[in-house]
Amino acid sequence: MYYSVELAPARPDGLTQLNIRFAHPADNDLIVPDAIRAIQALHLPGGKGVLFSGPASLPVAMALAHSVAHLYQFVACLDPKIAKFVVAISHTPSFQPGDCIE
């Protein structure tokens, strides 16, 4: 396993938080398919929004976002500089790209 995706404890706002991290050093050609398998293994039901927290290369981040973008109304990732999740993909007028979630 080169990449890990874990479901975080339930949030009071009902959003799904996924904690992501590299498991073993490798190149993106190995990490990307492994990250997709890891997220598929969670069998996520979808819902209002999904929040990603943890390190990811750009290819991994794009693959993970694509794998859940049609399951959730929006996809956001943690920006540690501002300690907030920033919406990157949205299918709902309630959340726009660039919106921040604590």
What does this structure look like?
With 102 residues, the chain is an alpha/beta fold. It has a domain at 3-73. It is 24% helix and 35% strand. It contains two helices and six strands. It has a six-stranded mixed beta sheet, covered by helices on one side. β2, α1 (28-40) and β3 form a beta-alpha-beta unit. α1 packs parallel to α2 (58-68). The termini are far apart.
Give the topology.
Blueprint: E1 3-7, E2 16-22, H1 28-40, E3 47-53, H2 58-68, E4 72-79, E5 84-90, E6 100-101
Parallel strand pairs: 2-3, 3-4
Antiparallel strand pairs: 1-2, 4-5, 5-6
Helix pairs in contact: 1-2
Short summary:
The protein has 102 residues and is of the alpha/beta class. The protein has helices at residues 28-40, 58-68; strands spanning 3-7, 16-22, 47-53, 72-79, 84-90, 100-101. It has two helices and six strands.
Shape: globular
Rg to the nearest angstrom?
Answer: 13 Å
Largest sheet: 6 strands, mixed
Distance between the termini: 30 Å
Q: Ranges with pLDDT <50 over ≥5 residues?
A: none
| Estimated share of beta-strand residues | 35-45%
Work out the number of β strands.
6
Instruction: Average the pLDDT over all residues and give the rounded result.
Output: 97
Percent helix: 10-25%
SS summary, helix count? 2
Element order, helices and strands? EEHEHEEE
Which class of secondary structure composition applies to the elements? alpha/beta
Strand order of the largest sheet: 1-2-3-4-5-6
Question: Which features would summarize this protein structure in a list?
Answer:
globular; 102 residues; alpha/beta; 6 strands; 24% helix; six-stranded mixed β-sheet; 2 helices
